[in-house]
C-alpha cells in the first residue's frame, strides 16, 4: 500500500466538471493498493496519516497532526502509484491491484480514516480532476513495503 500525503490549505475533486468534494486545511491523500495489502496495512497507514506531525504549532515547528488542527482529509484512489518505469518509458501497472479488489480496500480505508477525522473522497475509477493549494509544500510518502 502506498500513500502520498500532502498538507494543503484547500483541495477539491471534480468529475465531468462537477464538484464532488472539497476540503479546507488538511491532508490530500493519494492511495494505491497492491495484491499483498490487508487490513494490517490499512491500519498502519491510517494510524500514520492521522498522527503525522506536519502542521506548525505556535512556535512555527511541525509538531501538530491533522487531528490537532481540526483539519479534514480528501482521499483519492490512485492506482498509478504502482507504476513501474524500470523497463522502457511506458509505466507498467502490473503491481497495482485490480479495481474490483482495490475498491473494498479503498472503502474500508476511508471508513477507518473517518473514525478519526472527517474524510471525503472522489469517485473510484473515475477520471478525476484534483485541485490543491499545497501548504509548505509538505509531502510525505508512506509505503507499507518499507515499514
List the keywords.
147 residues, alpha/beta, D-tyrosyl-trna(Tyr) Deacylase, Chain: A, six-stranded mixed β-sheet, two-stranded antiparallel sheet
Strand % is 35-45%
Sketch the topology as an H/E string, one letter per element: EEEHEEEHEE
Helix % is: 10-25%
> The CATH topology, please?
D-tyrosyl-trna(Tyr) Deacylase, Chain: A
Given helix and strand content, the structural type is alpha/beta
The main pleated sheet reads as: 6 strands, mixed
Describe this protein's structure:
With 147 residues, the chain is an alpha/beta fold. It has a single domain, classed as 3-Layer(bba) Sandwich (D-tyrosyl-trna(Tyr) Deacylase, Chain: A), CATH 3.50.80. Helix content is 20%, strand content 39%. The protein is built from two helices and eight strands. Strands 1, 2, 3, 6, 7 and 8 form a six-stranded mixed beta sheet that branches. It has a two-stranded antiparallel ribbon with strand order 4-5. Helix 1 (39-51) crosses helix 2. The mean pLDDT is 97.
Give me the secondary-structure topology.
Blueprint: E1 2-15, E2 18-23, E3 26-32, H1 39-51, E4 55-56, E5 62-64, E6 72-77, H2 99-114, E7 119-121, E8 128-143
Parallel strand pairs: 3-6, 6-7
Antiparallel strand pairs: 1-2, 1-3, 1-8, 4-5
Please outline what is shown here:
With 147 residues, the protein is an alpha/beta fold. It has helices spanning 39-51, 99-114; strands at residues 2-15, 18-23, 26-32, 55-56, 62-64, 72-77, 119-121, 128-143.
